[in-house]
Design goal:
The model is unreliable at 1-45 and 519-529 (pLDDT under 50). Helix content is 75%, strand content 0%. 52% of the residues are buried. The chain is mostly helical. It contains 19 helices and no strands.
């Protein structure tokens, strides 16, 4: 089933590949890029512009589906424990199996899409996600549910790996920030309303519906994708898939994330965790060696020689490690220290994603006009300032104090995310957009896993220090909880400071290379036939 569209025209670099040398990230710092994304003439008709917006809606709705699903499931964990008569460590794998599947598979799905077509893989991902959702809703036991969640993660990996790549290729580069910001706003919106929808369904229906609700939304998304997303002919159809590289990277990431996850319970110096860490390191070394010696590598390592790609990825990873480790613990502060009821905790926790829902599309527009580096660097300044303000959080202060101190973090993340993602995708050549988008999504997920595990373990260690001995979180005093959180915010501030320095170094490099003006995207435009 394929709805062909005539409004999309392949980029000039594709049509001229027989007469011009292919641009790579290695040469981008020396010469202007031939093209890094598909271009649409600024004089395109209103009809074509409407088509682009429908593509944006189709992709954003798919990404929204994934974010809603994740936040709904988190809310349902206590209910699942009761319904299946399972322990928390067992039910926790309902979430972990999904995250592990995403982390392991996204890069492979991005590479596959660069070979056989982004639309084909993206649409297949929606179908697999819906099948997985239906099976999850019908799961007879918690073990079946965990297995079906992994199946669901295969589809989600296809969706999340390619959403940004499709927008980068279809939308004109001078509006790329706006498109990516709009899609990011949809993701944040899903995070906001997911818990609310989940709470209503758990109270008035049953846990089955937190998965079954995906089906009508996903069906609409699939229909829009098939109608409006153009074929997006791949440039790597004659290339072979690097099975050995995919296996090495997948097993390496699985070992890493499993070690990080188990480290929370067993300790990061325990034999199983150390063994998994060594295995992860060896597999990553093997992966790099394989990629350097195969004709068609799964991950083109030359991408990382481009500072705008590698350093922006590094900076983005730091922000997600910090925000994940902080957001994990803030509900405990609100409930155990400030003694707020659960409904108010949920409302206060919704502030950050709500602000990001509103501001991320605006930050995308700003980055199109002012440049990605200026906007993202200002965003990091806001994030750093917010975390520093949070180090003065009072143990028994009013909730409004928490809101005012954390608000700069929400504003800063909004200003940083969309421009940073736009800069990463803008630095990748068209025939590597799929894998570049997949790497971006993978490091974001990996950053969340690391943030939850490592910063969570750091918090518990500081909790014991301030209590002068081990203590359960629910038994700690508000003063001890707040003091441990202060240490957490200092650590988050240090991570963001490192990211800010990296961002400023990239900016300096761009100025020296004369790429600040080039970020206005001067790739050749083509007329729509």
């Amino acid at each position: 089933m394929e709805f062909h569209t005539s409004w999309y025209t392949a980029p000039m670099s594709e049509t001229m590949s027989k007469t011009k040398p292919k641009t790579t990230p290695e040469t981008i710092s020396e010469t202007m890029p031939e093209t890094t994304s598909a271009q649409i003439n600024p004089s395109h008709s209103e009809h074509d512009s409407a088509r682009q917006w429908w593509v944006l809606v189709a992709v954003s709705l798919s990404l929204f589906l994934g974010s809603v699903d994740g936040s709904i499931v988190n809310v349902a964990l206590p209910t699942l424990m009761q319904e299946f008569n399972a322990t928390f460590p067992t039910v926790q794998w309902v979430v972990l199996s999904y995250l592990l599947g995403l982390t392991v598979l996204m890069v492979s799905m991005g590479r596959l899409a660069d070979m056989i077509g982004k639309k084909r893989v993206f649409a297949t991902g929606i179908v697999l996600f819906l099948i997985g959702s239906a099976l999850c809703g019908l799961a007879p036991s918690v073990n079946w549910l965990i297995g079906f969640r992994f199946l669901q993660s295969i589809g989600a990996a296809m969706i999340l790996a390619l959403g940004t790549a499709i927008l980068t290729e279809v939308w004109p580069s001078y509006k790329r920030g706006q498109a990516i910001g709009f899609a990011a706003g949809f993701i944040s919106l899903g995070i906001v309303i997911g818990p609310a929808i989940g709470g209503i369904m758990l109270q008035y229906l049953s846990w089955h519906w937190i998965f079954l609700v995906n089906i009508p939304i996903g069906a609409l998304s699939f229909l829009l994708v098939m109608i409006y997303v153009p074929p997006l002919r791949p440039s790597g159809m004659r290339e072979s898939f690097d099975i050995a590289g995919a296996a090495a990277l997948g097993l390496g990431l699985l070992s890493l994330t499993s070690g990080i996850t188990l480290g929370q319970d067993l300790g990061f110096t325990s034999a199983p965790v150390l063994g998994l860490s060594v295995a992860a390191a060896l597999l990553v070394v093997l992966f790099v060696w394989l990629e350097m010696h195969v004709r068609y590598p799964m991950l083109d390592l030359s991408l990382f020689r481009e500072p705008q790609f590698s350093l922006n990825l590094f900076t983005g990873t730091l922000t997600f490690v910090a925000i994940s480790g902080v957001v994990l613990l803030l509900p405990f502060y609100l409930e155990l220290a400030l003694k707020l009821p659960q409904i108010q905790v949920g409302l206060y926790m919704a502030i950050v994603p709500l602000v990001m829902t509103v501001l991320q599309p605006l930050s995308g527009v700003l980055s199109d006009r002012l440049g990605t580096r200026r906007v993202s660097s200002v965003g990091l300044f806001f994030v750093l300032g917010g975390y520093l303000l949070m180090t003065g959080l009072a143990a028994e202060g009013p909730p409004v104090d928490y809101v005012l101190r954390f608000l700069p973090v929400a504003v800063g993340m909004s200003l940083f995310n969309s421009p940073n993602n736009s800069a990463i995708m803008g630095s990748a050549p068209r025939n590597r957009l799929g894998v570049a988008s997949a790497v971006l999504s993978m490091v974001r997920t990996l950053g969340q896993v690391i943030g939850v595990a490592v910063l969570g373990a750091f918090f518990y260690q500081r909790l014991a220090v301030h209590n002068s001995g081990s203590v359960a979180l629910e038994a700690a005093t508000p003063q001890v909880i707040t003091a441990a959180l202060h240490d957490q915010f200092w650590l988050a501030s240090a991570l963001i400071a490192i990211g800010l320095i990296a961002s400023l170094l990239i900016w300096r490099w761009e100025i020296r290379q004369g790429l600040v003006a080039a970020r206005r995207e001067s790739e050749p435009m083509v007329e729509i036939g």
